[in-house]
Amino acid sequence: MMKTNVKILVVDDDPNLRKTLADILKFKGYEVVIAGTGNDGIMVAERETVNLALIDLKLPDMHGLEVMERIKAIAPLTEAIILTGHASMETAIEATKKGAFSYLLKPYQMDDLLLNIRHGVERQQAQEEILRLASFPRLLPSPVIELDPAGEITYINPAAVKLFPDLSMMGLSHPLLSGLITQITALRQNRQREEIVHEVEIDPAVYELHISFVQEVGLIRIYALDITQRKRDEAAIHILATTDSLTGIANRREFTTVLTSEVARAKRYNTPLSLVMYDIDYFKRVNDSFGHDVGDYVLQELTRLVKQNIRSVDVVARWGGEEFMLLMPQVNLSAAFAVADKLRLAIAEYQFDKVEHLTVSFGVTVYDPADDLNALLKRADDALYLAKQNGRNRVESLVRETPVNPTS
Predict the structure, then answer these.
(1) Which residues are registered as beta bridge partners of 363?
(2) What is the pTM of this model?
(3) Of 20, 35, 394, 401, which is least surrounded by CB within 10 A?
(4) 322 catalytic residue (yes or no)
(5) 216, 322, 349, 396: which one is catalytic?
(6) Arch. (CATH architecture) of 7-127
């Protein structure tokens, strides 16, 4: 349960975003301090105790990662979440390596941000509690194990005995500790090294192990924090963030991520990549005549039909409303056209409850090395528009600038 008086620092040069975040966080019960520059944020950390900092990656006076490093140098237990509108996987990895709790790309979902803040605060408070009780491991409600530098267990607190009664007998062969040989060796060789964090799953629980060398007593001390609920929550926000709730397939955001990755792969290895955009003809009539419940059923049943007729490596996504995308790696234009026409026929022949028969129009295109993402998406959209113009219940294809009829 979250402690009261949790203080969040918001460092962002956008005054509107600062105010919006501050208002929402205050409503959620947090104390909030705002800063418009990196230097102002650092000054806040020097004079006030901050549980967690939300830091924009691009600030007018310095890089967000530098701000984070300087804040953590002042207050090592302060957690940080990096926010940015322009990011790469390399930047995300760098942020986490330098101590960021998490990394969110703008525009982020507010529920996603709030969940990350809650978990970050929980971790910060757990770390505080660990330090507070470090001299009294017996009192800590989480498992505490102490080992000598050679890896022999010298102490197990009551919480560890209760959860892992065979720990003392099994030692480093116990599932909780079996993956720690490398870390223990590193600590034995370099006793000044910072704390190591290691995650281990002992079904059905997940533990975060905080491993450090306690110089005063010459022992390796391991604190095991149960993070099972946090992992479940993370797995649930990932599903919510990447999946269309009605059909269970990828949503627009996730599909864009996958498409970006597959385009990069196709360009790098010079392999074909086909994109199909499709939607239901006259779908508004379904909702108007039968209601939205039937409309939802049609979208779900259509998704099921499509998934039955594509490969496991193909990616189908709901782009919006009754509009869908299908991405087919290593498939050329004529093959993609054939798949789309197979889907068109399967859907046209299928008998939907109440609605009976429906048709779908398809636009097909193939990636060209000269394409950027927008050009590829626009061409698929143009092909779909052409199918609508030419009478619906048909497949049309376009390549870069030149219409193509693969069947001719």
Answers:
(1) 277, 396
(2) 0.53
(3) 401
(4) yes
(5) 322
(6) 3-Layer(aba) Sandwich (3.40)
